[in-house]
Design brief:
The structure holds 2 protein chains of 2 kinds.
Chain A (H helix, E strand, L loop, with lengths): L2 H24 L6 H19 L4 H8 L7 H5 L4 E4 L12 E8 L2 E8 L5 H7 L6 H17 L3 E7 L6 H5 L2 H14 L4 E10 H5 L6 E5 L3 E3 L3 H9 L5 H8 L3 H6 L5 E3 L10 H19 L4 H13 L4 E2 L11
Parallel strand pairs in A: 3-4, 4-5, 5-6, 5-7, 6-8
Antiparallel strand pairs in A: 1-2, 2-3
Helix pairs in contact in A: 1-2, 3-11, 6-8, 10-11
Chain B lengths: L2 H8 L2 H9 L2 E3 L6 E3 H6 L15 H8 L4 E4 L4 E2 L11 H12 L5 E8 L2 E8 L10 H17 L3 E7 L7 H20 L4 E10 H4 L8 E5 L4 E2 L3 H8 L10 H6 L5 E3 L4 H10 L1
Classes of the chains: A alpha/beta, B alpha/beta.
The complex binds zinc ion (ZN).
The site of zinc ion (ZN) has 8 residues of chain B, from loops.
C-alpha cells in the first residue's frame, strides 16, 4: 500500500466536487464562485498539510508512486530517441531501456531503468530490477558512447538489482562491477538523474557521473528501508524509522556532496505535472551538458575521479572516536 | 618494518591473549579437534577436510608477506556521519569491534614484498563489523591502489565482507564508486590487480572491486554472491541448495575465477607479479 496514494484519495473527492461546481458555474444558472473559492482554499490547505513537508518515509512512497514519471516518460520527451536492444549475449532485459537520443542540438546515448505501472507491465519490466544482461546492455551502450564521443545521460529508478537465482548464476556482481569501471573510464560527459528510487549498487551502476541530478522527492539509499529495518531491528515494520536514519533524501545527499542538482517538484509530487517536470529535468540535463561540452576526455574522467575521491566521513586524528551512550 | 616486528607493534595485548587462550579448536565442518599451532602452520586450513577458517587480517598478512611491510592509511579512522543508533550507537559498535579484533577498521593496507616482489596489499577482516565497507575501508583501499599506481606495483586485495556498511548510509555506498574509479586508473596504467575472495564476499564489495580484478581467486567453500541468501529465499519463496553461492558454484559456471585453497594464494600472488 502506498501511503501517498491513500492520502490522495481524500483530495480526489474534493477535486471532483470543485469540478462539478465549475460546470454549474459555467452554465451561469447560479453563481457558485464563492463556494468554489472556499473549496479551493480548503483543497490548498489540505494539500499543504499532506505535502508541505514530507518525511523521509513519505518520500520513499512518493518515489514509488505508481503514477510517478518513469524513464520512458523522459526518453520520449527527447527530440529523438531510437531504442537499442539486448546485451548480444543472453537476452534483452526490459528493466533497462536505452539507445540513441537527441537532446537539444546534441546526440547522446540515453539509458534508463524502467519499472511498470501495473502488474502486466511490471512482469515485463521485472519491477525495474535489472538482471546481469541488463547491466551488460548498459556497458555495451556506455562503451558505444565512449567510442563515438557521445555524452551519456542516465535515468535511475530501481528498488535494487534483481536478486534471483538466475542473476547469481550469471554473475550479477560482475555485471554491476564492470558497469562501475566502464562509467569511471568513459571519455565522455555523464549526467545521471535519480527520478524515483535509487536502490543501492543496482542504482549506482548507472550513476557514476560528472553531475548527479535528483528530483526533490526521489530517494537514493544504501539499502531499502524495509531491508534495513529487518536487519537492524528484525522488524520490517520499523521501515519508517529506518528511512529517517538512512539519510536518503535529495537534501541530505546534496549535503554529503553526492547529489549536485535538485529539481523541485510541483506540490503533490512529480506525477501532478508530468510534462512540466519532464521538461524541467530535460532542460537541467541539457544545461549541465552545455557546461561540460568544452572539457577534454581526461578533464571529464579526472572530474569524476575527484568528485568520488572526496566522498566519505573520516576521523583523521589518531585517537579514540567519540563515544556516546546508546 | 620486518613482518614480525610489525605484527608485534600492531597487535594489542587483547588480540594476543585471544590467540593464546584456545590452544585447541574444533573444525566447524568436520568436527576434527585441531591443535592451533598446527592449524596456523597449515595456513588455517583444516588438515582433515580443507575447511578454511576465517583468518584475521594480521594472520593473512603474516601468511602472504615475507619481507617488509609498511602500513598505509593507519591514521584514517572512522567517524559517525549519520549519528546512527539502532540497538546500539554506531561508535559503541566500533569500539567493541576494535577491542574484539585488534583492528581500527575492517581493512589493513600496506606496501610489502612477497618472495622479493614488491606489491601493494589490502586485507579485509570479517571480525571488524563483518568486514563491511564504510568511508575508512574506501579511503584506505583507495590510498593503497593510488600507491600501487604511483609506484607501479601489482595490487592485491583479499576480500571478506558483508557489503556496504549500513551505519554510514550513502557515504558507504559511494565507496564502491571511489574504489572502482581507482581500479579504473590502475587498469588504464596496465598494472596487474589480483583479488582473493574469501568467506564471505557479498553485496557492495562483491559488486565492485572483488570482481574488477585481472585475476580473481576464490577460496574453496567461500560464500560469494551479490544478494544475501535470505533476500533471495524471500524473493523466490523457496529454500536454496547448500552449494548455492559458494566458490565452487561460481567456478562450475565459469564465472572467471580460479579456485584455490588458502595455501595456494601465495602462488597466485607470484603469478600476478609475473604479468
Ligand atoms: Zn575439517
Amino acid at each position: 500500500m502506498n501511503i501517498i496514494v491513500e492520502r490522495e484519495k481524500g483530495l480526489l473527492e474534493l477535486e471532483r466536487r470543485i469540478e462539478e461546481l465549475r460546470v454549474v458555474n459555467a452554465s451561469h444558472a447560479v453563481d457558485m464562485s464563492g463556494e468554489i473559492a472556499g473549496l479551493q482554499a480548503k483543497y490548498a490547505q489540505i494539500q499543504h498539510e499532506i505535502f508541505g513537508s514530507l518525511t523521509a518515509w513519505e518520500k520513499v512512497h512518493m518515489a514509488r508512486h505508481p503514477m510517478r514519471p518513469t524513464a520512458l516518460d523522459y526518453l520520449s520527451a527527447l527530440d529523438a530517441y531510437d531504442e537499442l536492444h539486448g546485451d548480444r549475449h543472453f537476452r534483452d532485459d526490459h528493466a533497462i531501456v536505452g539507445g540513441l537520443g537527441r537532446l537539444g542540438q546534441r546526440n547522446v546515448v540515453v539509458i534508463g531503468q524502467q519499472r511498470g505501472r501495473d502488474t502486466k507491465e511490471n512482469l515485463l519490466r521485472n519491477f525495474g530490477m535489472v538482471s546481469p544482461e541488463g547491466y551488460r546492455k548498459v556497458q555495451r551502450l556506455a562503451e558505444l558512447a565512449g567510442r563515438f564521443g557521445l555524452p551519456i545521460v542516465t535515468f535511475v529508478d530501481t528498488k535494487g538489482a534483481d536478486p534471483g537465482i538466475g542473476s547469481e548464476e550469471r554473475a550479477q556482481s560482475e555485471a554491476i562491477a564492470r558497469c562501475l569501471v566502464t562509467f569511471a573510464m568513459a571519455p565522455v560527459p555523464i549526467v545521471a538523474t535519480i527520478i524515483g528510487e535509487g536502490g543501492s549498487g543496482g542504482a549506482l551502476a548507472l550513476a557514476i557521473a560528472n553531475s548527479v541530478v535528483m528530483l526533490e522527492h526521489s530517494v537514493y539509499s544504501v539499502a531499502s528501508p524495509e531491508g534495513a529495518a529487518a536487519i537492524l531491528w528484525s522488524d520490517a515494520g520499523k521501515a519508517d524509522e529506518a528511512a529517517e536514519h538512512l539519510k536518503l533524501t535529495a537534501a541530505d545527499l546534496q549535503r554529503f556532496g553526492i547529489v549536485d542538482h535538485i529539481v523541485p517538484e510541483p506540490v503533490g509530487g512529480a506525477h501532478r505535472d508530468v510534462p512540466g517536470i519532464v521538461g524541467r529535468v530535460v532542460d537541467t540535463v541539457g544545461a549541465i551538458l552545455d557546461s561540460l561540452a568544452s572539457k577534454s576526455a581526461s578533464e571529464l574522467t579526472d572530474g569524476r575521479y575527484s568528485k568520488y575521491r572526496q566522498i566519505g566521513a573520516l576521523n583523521s586524528e589518531r585517537g579514540e572516536a567519540t563515544e556516546s551512550t546508546p | 618494518m620486518a613482518i614480525p616486528d610489525w605484527l608485534r607493534s600492531r597487535r594489542t595485548e587483547r588480540d594476543d591473549s585471544r590467540h593464546d587462550a584456545a590452544l585447541w579448536t574444533k573444525c566447524p565442518s568436520c568436527a576434527e579437534v585441531l591443535y592451533r599451532p598446527d592449524l596456523s602452520a597449515n595456513l588455517f586450513v583444516c588438515t582433515r577436510c580443507q575447511h578454511h577458517f576465517r583468518m584475521s587480517a594480521f594472520d593473512r598478512i603474516a601468511m602472504l608477506i615475507d619481507g617488509d611491510f609498511t602500513e598505509i592509511g593507519s591514521n584514517v579512522l572512522p567517524s559517525d556521519p549519520l549519528t546512527w543508533v539502532d540497538k546500539k550507537a554506531y561508535p559503541v559498535k566500533l569500539a567493541t569491534d576494535r577491542e574484539k579484533s585488534g583492528m581500527t577498521e575492517a581493512v589493513l593496507c600496506g606496501l610489502g614484498s612477497i618472495g622479493g616482489h614488491s606489491v601493494a596489499l589490502g586485507v579485509m577482516d570479517f571480525y571488524f563489523r563483518g568486514g563491511t565497507m564504510g568511508s575508512v575501508v574506501g579511503e584506505r583501499l583507495t590510498l593503497m591502489l593510488e600507491a600501487a599506481l604511483q609506484k607501479r606495483r601489482p595490487a592485491i586485495i583479499v576480500t571478506a565482507s558483508g557489503g556496504a556498511r549500513m551505519e554510514e548510509g550513502m557515504l558507504a555506498l559511494m565507496q564502491m564508486a571511489k574504489i572502482s574509479s581507482a581500479v579504473a586508473r590502475l587498469s588504464e596504467a596496465r598494472i596487474p590487480f589480483l583479488t582473493v575472495l574469501t568467506d564471505p564476499t557479498t553485496g557492495g564489495v562483491s559488486a565492485s572491486f572483488a570482481f574488477q580484478a585481472d585475476i580473481i581467486v576464490a577460496e574453496r567453500k567461500a560464500m560469494i554472491g551479490f544478494a544475501g541468501r535470505r533476500v533471495i529465499e524471500q524473493t523466490i519463496r523457496q529454500k536454496l541448495p547448500d552449494q548455492f553461492q559458494t566458490a565452487e558454484f561460481l567456478w562450475r559456471r565459469g564465472i572467471s575465477i580460479a579456485l584455490s585453497i588458502a595455501t595456494n594464494s601465495r602462488r597466485f600472488s607470484f603469478a600476478c607479479c609475473r604479468i
